[in-house]
Write a structure and sequence with these properties.
Elements: E1 4-6, E2 15-22, E3 24-29, E4 32-36, E5 46-51, E6 57-64, E7 84-89, E8 100-106, E9 119-120, E10 138-139, E11 141-143, H1 145-148, E12 164-166, E13 173-182, E14 200-202
Length: 211
């Protein structure tokens, strides 16, 4: 195993990741699980975490509307819901129409609320891995803030430059996976690569605990 002597990462090496979903998401970066929305439904909350970006960087997100898996409806099967997802990293990575998007759960089919049915596709096990093939996927569609109607926490965080995205159907597509490839930092700032931290030997050895 090859080891590289570099300094240990500091908080100043991180960038802030702000993520908001209607209603829920789970986020992976370069195949590693980074964040998950801890509140499945209302109130919609912003998840804000510090991340250590490493380029090239693959961002993968599964987002879900709070729909019944058998009917595609919400609020005790009384209505069709809507959705939306937005993300901004401190390195300039933002959601927009350049992201790939694919729906894996759609309903109620034909907006039939009297006899609602859902069309589901199996989610690939490796959907979050960098080498997953999303070439055939469509691009995400951008939606306005008015169309999504974000709740209060959204306005308390920095999403400047980012767009709300979803698949082509913001009401009937209830589970959507997004993927985005970032070749280099959008803001042009060179950052140390701290991936594979377990294989890195720090410049100074860790201090031993006194017994």
């Amino acid at each position: 195993m090859r080891t590289v002597r570099v300094g240990k990462p500091k908080i100043s090496d991180t960038v802030k990741a702000n993520v908001y979903a209607d209603n829920w998401f789970t986020l992976y970066i370069n195949g590693e699980h980074v964040a998950v929305d801890s509140i499945e439904f209302m109130p919609h909350n912003v998840v804000s975490v510090d991340i250590l970006p490493a380029y090239p960087m693959t961002v993968a997100v599964m987002a879900k509307d709070n729909a019944d898996p058998e009917t595609g409806m919400e609020y005790a099967n009384t209505s069709i819901g809507d959705a939306g997802f937005i993300l901004k990293f401190g390195d300039g990575t933002v959601t927009n129409a350049s992201w790939k998007a694919k729906s894996f759960s759609h309903g109620p089919i034909d907006r039939d609320t009297k006899n609602p049915k859902v069309r589901n596709q199996p989610v690939p096990e490796n959907w979050h891995q960098p080498d997953f093939d999303d070439e055939s996927w469509s691009y995400a569609k951008e939606y306005s803030q008015q169309q999504v109607g974000p709740k209060e926490p959204f306005f308390e965080h920095d999403f400047d430059g980012a767009s709300f995205i979803w698949s082509d159907d913001i009401e009937l597509d209830n589970t959507v996976i997004f993927r985005h490839f970032v070749a280099e930092a959008p803001d042009g700032i060179a950052r140390p690569d701290f991936s594979n931290l377990n294989d890195i030997v720090p410049n100074s050895p860790p201090k031993r605990r006194k017994r």
